[in-house]
Amino acid sequence: MIEARRILWDQTLQHAAEIKLPEEMSKMLLQLIPHLQIRLSHMYVLWKIKAGATRPIVPSFTAPTALASKWIHEQLLSYVIAIPTICMDSLAYTRELDNPILPMPWTRLIVCLDVVALYPSIPMKDSLQATMQFLKENTPLPNEAQLMIVKIMEWVVSNKYIEHENSIYHQVDGIVMGEALSVMVANIFMYKVVEEKILHKWRDYILHYVRYVDDINKFMAITTLQAQELKNDLTAQSEFINYTMDCYANKSDFLDLQITVMQEVWPVARTRIDYRIYRKPGNTLAYLCADSYHASHTSYGIIIGELIRYLTKSSRREYYIQDAQMLHHAFKTRGYTHKMLIQGLGHLDWSERKIYRAKGLQPKIRHIPGGVAVFITQIDPVIISADGNSRKIQAQFELDTNHFNNHC
């Protein structure tokens, strides 16, 4: 099958090389080029009200490098999510919070760190070096595959052109929010450049450590002065990365979770962690109005979606009941009917929590055919050859690195 694909691929390329456009067609294309839509990435800005700053977003799905960026994302994803410090999402994190290994009594600190402007702070050259190091040390990919990924990544990050207010800009450093590979690059840079060595140094003091891109939450057996020393160690790993830090005795706000350390004496004396949905100060629960111009099922879907989120991310029944009552009032003020709200609450009783958590915690990574870099492939047991006979084949794809370097 691999050999058959290769023959068809070669035939297709040969066919393309033999095609010659008629002279009149060439003239027509030249005339149409100025009228064809050639779109670059456009930037828009989100306000960070609390910080009094802005966050530039650059959706890159229209960029010439969009598909290459997506391809790199697919190559790196399965390896990046295996990084030990990675937090996939807040629901997955609650599974770790349900089974904490914390001392009794709890007299330690919860340390929260936030990287200041992570994406624009990551240098392109350093990110390429970190990715190459990550591929060598944390993946089983052959050298040829590593070289291909890094070369294509270099092409993507070096050709980032952005349109904004009738001007075109060429980004010469940093990575943008809105590009497929940006999350992969940010996680790799943070782990290989900043975290790996320092976490090994502080391993005897760290009870639990997770990071979601630029937000870090950790339980530590240290003092406030030692927490500052840890922050200084992390900052010293890269001149481009800076942090803000908060230390708490028994609580923290991480992603959309409000986390509290509790001392439990019955039925067993232990330190447990409670959690519920966190809402930022100023959150007015301004959900979509029920009479908005959307499909009729949208309103009910919003109710169900929010109730599932609160149900699965509340560690105690009383938390869910309190928040469900709050949601009932919030939706009612937005024009949702009492019947619709009661119907939603009736479908999502506390007894359904395990079912919805099991659904939400299923693996989210889907294996996409052709989405991985395969350089040695065994086809087994058989394929049917052109003459009708069955035969086993083994195919190996060899990449000429010298040819690759000359053309990248």
Number of helices, where a helix is a run of at least 4 consecutive DSSP H or I residues = 14
Q: Average pLDDT, to the nearest integer?
A: 80
How many whole angstroms does the radius of gyration measure? 27 Å
Largest beta-sheet details: 4 strands, antiparallel
In terms of per-residue confidence, which ranges show pLDDT below 50 for 5 or more consecutive residues?
368-408
Could you say which structural class the secondary elements and strand pairing correspond to?
alpha+beta
What number of structural domains do the residues give?
A: 3
Strand order of the largest sheet: 7-8-4-9
Share of β-strand residues: 15-25%
Kindly state the number of beta strands. Answer: 14
Q: State the distance separating the first and last CA atoms.
A: 29 Å
What's the SSE pattern? HHEEEHHEHHHEEHEEHEEEEHHHHEEH
State the helical fraction: 40-55%
| Shape category | globular
